[in-house]
Design a protein that fits this description.
- This protein is α/β, with parallel strands linked by helices and 216 residues long.
- It has one domain: Rossmann fold (3-Layer(aba) Sandwich), CATH 3.40.50.620.
- The protein has nine helices and seven strands.
- It has helices at 19-32, 55-67, 77-80, 87-96, 110-113, 122-125, 144-147, 181-189, 200-208; strands spanning 7-12, 36-41, 72-74, 104-109, 130-134, 155-157, 169-172.
- It has a seven-stranded parallel β-sheet with strand order 3-2-1-4-5-7-6.
Length: 216
């Protein structure tokens, strides 16, 4: 029996995309030998305020970021959908399009996954696909066993990865860049350098299009 192709799916506002996002994507890709990781910008983030940059600019920036890595791809699935970008709605659309959700690995930072029980239809959500949870500064993936004890039996250490037959939560403990989109926007507004915080192509795009200059 052939193995299912393993696809990584990293959603986010990406306002803008930065080195922390890319570190999370890379960590998941490496730990689970994912075939491709798709960056999926949200149209309307359901758990935070509206994005600062329009969808066309956020899409352009994730596309630029993906072009630098042959294992990265992009998807406009959530940009094309109406209403808030709930993950459960995304899974419904992907399944309707014929995707085998058994091979889908939704990637998220440990800080975001700590609130998984507050996500729309959370119980159904974690029963339909794999999750890959990567440490973020101040939020270790392994600590989720204590934070979410009701899900601890489903959490597996990605270091000892084996093909899972049922939806599982893979924990990836590795350093990722201590940077946030809020910090990037504040630095742009203050006229400060973005060196080492975003890929050079993203810094150039932000400057060329005058993004975030009025964010202070």
């Amino acid at each position: 029996m052939s193995k299912r192709p393993r696809l990584g799916w990293l959603g986010g506002t990406f306002d803008p995309i930065h080195c922390g996002h890319l570190d999370v994507a890379r960590a998941a890709h490496t730990a689970l030998a994912l075939g491709t990781v798709r960056l999926v910008p949200t149209r309307v983030p359901p758990h935070r305020s509206a994005a600062h940059a329009p969808p066309k600019h956020r899409w352009a920036m994730v596309t630029l970021a993906a072009q630098a890595h042959d294992w990265l791809g992009v998807s406009d699935d959530e940009l094309q959908a109406d209403g808030p970008s709930y993950t459960i709605h995304t899974l419904n659309r992907l399944e309707e399009q014929g995707m085998d959700l058994g091979g889908l690995h939704v990637i998220t930072g440990a800080d975001a996954f700590a609130t998984i029980l507050d996500w729309k239809d959370a119980t159904q959500l974690i029963d339909r696909c794999h999750f890959v949870v990567v440490s973020r500064p101040g939020h270790q993936a392994q600590a989720l066993r204590q934070t979410l004890p009701m899900l601890a039996t489903r959490m597996l250490d990605a270091k000892s990865y084996v093909e899972a037959s049922t939806p599982s939560i893979f924990l990836v403990d590795t350093p990722t860049a201590p940077v946030s989109s809020t910090e990037i926007r504040n630095r742009v507004a203050a006229g400060q350098s973005l060196d080492g915080l975003v890929p050079e192509a993203i810094a150039t795009y932000i400057d060329t299009h005058g993004l975030y200059r009025g964010e202070a």
